[in-house]
Every structure is written in C-alpha cells, then in structure tokens.
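Researcher: I'd like a structural prediction for the single chain below. Treat it as a standalone chain; there are no partners to consider.
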Amino acid sequence: MPFEVGRGISDDHYGPCGISHHNKDGLDGIADPRFPWMIDIGGKRMTRKTTMTRYAAGPPAVGVQPGSRRTLWLVIGIVLAFVLGVPVGLGIANAGTSESDRAVAEMQRDEARREVTQITELTAMARKTKETVTPVVEGLAKVAPENGPAAVTATAAQLSEWKKIMEQERQRYEETVSGSTAVNVARNALRNAVNLLNTAVDTYIVAAGVPADRRPAVIDLSARQTALAVSSWSVGAVQLDQLNTDAGNGHQHVYLTDSESTMMDDGVPEGSQG
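Model: Treating it as a single chain, here is the predicted structure.
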C-alpha cells in the first residue's frame, strides 16, 4: 500500500522508518518501527507523553489571570456598594427623620385642637356655673356681709336651696380632665372657688345652730369664705380670658360678680382679639 509523507493511515499503523504516521494523540510525525512509542517531530524525537504535555496544554494566556480577574471584580463591587450605599443610606435616614418630624407635627396639631376644645368647653361650663350660683353669692352677701352686720337672716328654705345648688356644682367640677398646664390652672381655680362657696353655705348653716352670742363670729367666717371663693374665681376667669384669646376665640369675661367684672375690666369688648 502506498504511503504519503506527512499523513498517517490509522491510529494503529506504524510504517517503515521515514514514513509519515498519524498517531493516537492526533499529531502527525515520522514514526520509527523500532521505537513505536516515539515519534520524530521537526527533527526532535519525543515520547507520546512529552508530546501531549507540550502541545496539548499550549502556552499560558497573556493578560489578567482568572484569580486576579475575580479579585478585581470583588474590589469594584465593594467600591460600588460603598458609593451607592452611602447616598441610599442617607436617603433612608432622611426619610425616617422626615417621617418622625411629620408624626411629631401631627401630634402637636392634635394636641392644639384638643386644647382649643377644652378651653371652649371650660368657658361654657364657667358661664353656666356663674348663672347658677349667682343667687347664692348675692344671698350670702346679704345675710353674711364681709363688712358690717347682717341686714337680714336666711330662711331654712333659702339655705336648703343654696345647699342643693352648690352640691350640684361641686359634683360638676369634681371630674378631673387632663389638659395643658394653662388649662389646668384655670380649671383648678374655678373648682376651688366652687368648693369655697359650698363651704361658706355650710358655715352659715352651722351659724344658725350655735348660741346667739357666738353666732356673729361664725357668720363672719362664712363671709370670709365667700370672699375667698370670689377671689379664686377671678384667678380662673383671668386665665380663661387669656386662654380664649390665644386660642383665637377672642376675649371671654366670665367674672362671678359685677364688682369683680368692674375691677377686672380690661376695656376690651367681649369676643374681640384686641
């Protein structure tokens, strides 16, 4: 069979010396029948193992090695995470702060609305109380005047009616409503006034049962208790007037007696913002 130089016939064929052979490793070379495990490539005789190692693996690639490439991408990822993460983190922090600020502002607005409601309700209650207790205040001023002897003596029916009125008002102010310090000052002053006026009625009732020689001293005590009640009410009324002005309701004058209204008159019309 004819042979061609530079080309093998089969993987298992070894021709005579000088004849081209295509070996099992897929390499063309000149095979020597005396040494079938060796081939001659380019004038160099090599074993099949050497040939496979040298020609199959090939030279290393020029450029960035795989390990270095992974390190580079890792560094780039860290840098990008830092660069992108800081603004995102700041944005989240700012969003949280803004949300907290909005929540606080909304709470403050709710508290302001609640206070305006309390001021309006307390003013209405004070006006109702003034209207209800005016007969008691005027009656005590006659039977237990602050200065000088009494012109008249209260009847049992009058005392019973006064006691009924004052007990009703005492229970009205017994309820404690939590509010701001300013609102609480006004409410407590009005409450103290009602309690003092109720005590003044009790004291006068006691005076009716003591001996005649001791009665003037007890009646004088009732008169002083009434005066303290009017003064305490005036403190609450002044505070209430200021609260209504600040809340936008205008001036509200709710003094217990005409004399107190005259003395505390600020010259500002009712309901005005002046």
